[in-house]
Design a protein that fits this description.
Layout (H helix, E strand, L loop, with lengths): L7 H136 L3 H23 L1
Length: about 170
């Protein structure tokens, strides 16, 4: 009796014990194992489905984020253009106000200069008239010391007044 060539009895008992163990395993062990394998397979399938769904959601979120970034860049560009235009308007308005203020100051300065020039000319005329009257008074006093020269002066002045009136009526 060797292990490589067992007796019929030994072979029978080995086959019988194998069949009993196999039967017990088939009835109680294999269903548990196959159920565990099926559960594991289902868990893996659900995990893969969840991963696919997560990838789809991630792709959708990425697309949405890209669209939002693109819209934000467009809006940023618009805001920058609006800010630049508003800045130019403010600068132009400030320039216009400064130019208007400068014109106003120049006009006021010109008016003051004209007023001072007219006042100076008026003062000069008054002074010239006063000096002329003083000189004429002194000259007339000296020349009108006698009655004949007084009468000649009066008649000459009357002639000039009549000439001025006749020339102004024409």
């Amino acid at each position: 009796m060797s292990l490589l060539t067992p007796d019929f009895g030994l072979l029978f008992w080995m086959l019988l014990s194998f069949a009993i163990v196999f039967g017990l395993l088939a009835k109680y062990g294999f269903p548990v194992i196959t159920r565990q394998v099926d559960e594991r397979r289902e868990y893996i399938r659900q995990s893969l489905d969840a991963a696919d769904e997560a990838n789809r959601k991630l792709a959708a979120i990425k697309d949405e984020t890209d669209a939002m970034l693109s819209a934000a860049r467009v809006r940023q560009t618009e805001l920058m253009k609006e800010a630049a235009a508003e800045g130019e308007k403010i600068v132009q308005a400030a320039k216009d106000r400064a130019a208007a203020e400068a014109r106003k100051l120049m006009d006021e300065a010109g008016q003051r200069i004209d007023a001072q020039r007219l006042k100076a000319a008026d003062d000069l005329r008054r002074e010239a008239a006063r000096l002329s009257v003083n000189m004429a008074e002194k000259i007339i006093r000296r020349q009108l010391s006698n009655a004949d020269s007084q009468e000649a002066l009066v008649s000459r002045l009357l002639d000039e007044v009549e000439r001025d009136e006749s020339s102004s009526q024409i």
